[in-house]
């Protein structure tokens, strides 16, 4: 065993349709999901006893809100229990989380960290659990964790557990923006005007280019965005600012308050990000690549 690193890329809901609600209160979703080339980072090393440390821009807020409890630790403990039950060793490990993504912002930061923990410890412990076993653990940690375990363009349905890879999805330049204002996901769902909306429908044909995908994305929506804008008016200001940078499309991700803009290239995204940071240095902006199916 030796030091290992895992990326925890931001999860971007390119579209999120609320299609129903189960008797247990969970909402049924139909979502098109992509992943950024940037995000949090985790480091795993063998140790005499378990350890967990955090650094990065959003580390202080994470420590303040979680009181030391974290999805990373829950993922570690869940994987250890299953590994040991199957006869695999799961010795102590020191984990370091570099927290670069804003908290509770609609881009799956905690879920991405949990998924990266499962992947990283699977490698460190050489436990060789099947992908199905990892997905089983992931779903116990949160509905977004199985998507983050996949880490490729996908369509997620049900409460997020039914995952279908999206073939031939092209890469784009990506800017993520957040006004650094908290938004309550339960409050957003409570304000939904309709919980039974049309699903996404048929995706573009295999081999479709950027232009075709953008035209398709423009026919879709995020059903949580209107309610989120009522609760956090800064989202509307943020989206207008980002759309004004020549973006191909701008939309809120997940339950917000993060918005994304897509561009033809990462270079265009970098230029847009610089302009946005100049206009609002007090907000969060990050440029990267929205990874394609082959990345």
TrEMBL record:
<feature type="domain" description="GHMP kinase N-terminal">
    <location>
        <begin position="70"/>
        <end position="151"/>
    </location>
</feature>
<feature type="active site">
    <location>
        <position position="11"/>
    </location>
</feature>
<feature type="active site">
    <location>
        <position position="144"/>
    </location>
</feature>
<dbReference type="Pfam" id="PF00288">
    <property type="entry name" value="GHMP_kinases_N"/>
</dbReference>
<dbReference type="InterPro" id="IPR013750">
    <property type="entry name" value="GHMP_kinase_C_dom"/>
</dbReference>
<dbReference type="Pfam" id="PF08544">
    <property type="entry name" value="GHMP_kinases_C"/>
</dbReference>
<dbReference type="InterPro" id="IPR020568">
    <property type="entry name" value="Ribosomal_Su5_D2-typ_SF"/>
</dbReference>
<protein>
    <recommendedName>
        <fullName>4-diphosphocytidyl-2-C-methyl-D-erythritol kinase</fullName>
        <ecNumber>2.7.1.148</ecNumber>
    </recommendedName>
</protein>
<dbReference type="InterPro" id="IPR004424">
    <property type="entry name" value="IspE"/>
</dbReference>
<feature type="binding site">
    <location>
        <begin position="102"/>
        <end position="112"/>
    </location>
    <ligand>
        <name>ATP</name>
    </ligand>
</feature>
<comment type="similarity">
    <text>Belongs to the GHMP kinase family. IspE subfamily.</text>
</comment>
<keyword id="KW-0418">Kinase</keyword>
<keyword id="KW-0808">Transferase</keyword>
<comment type="pathway">
    <text>Isoprenoid biosynthesis; isopentenyl diphosphate biosynthesis via DXP pathway; isopentenyl diphosphate from 1-deoxy-D-xylulose 5-phosphate: step 3/6.</text>
</comment>
<keyword id="KW-0067">ATP-binding</keyword>
<dbReference type="GO" id="GO:0050515">
    <property type="term" value="F:4-(cytidine 5'-diphospho)-2-C-methyl-D-erythritol kinase activity"/>
</dbReference>
<dbReference type="InterPro" id="IPR006204">
    <property type="entry name" value="GHMP_kinase_N_dom"/>
</dbReference>
<keyword id="KW-0414">Isoprene biosynthesis</keyword>
<keyword id="KW-0547">Nucleotide-binding</keyword>
<feature type="domain" description="GHMP kinase C-terminal">
    <location>
        <begin position="217"/>
        <end position="276"/>
    </location>
</feature>
<dbReference type="InterPro" id="IPR014721">
    <property type="entry name" value="Ribsml_uS5_D2-typ_fold_subgr"/>
</dbReference>
<comment type="function">
    <text>Catalyzes the phosphorylation of the position 2 hydroxy group of 4-diphosphocytidyl-2C-methyl-D-erythritol.</text>
</comment>
<dbReference type="InterPro" id="IPR036554">
    <property type="entry name" value="GHMP_kinase_C_sf"/>
</dbReference>
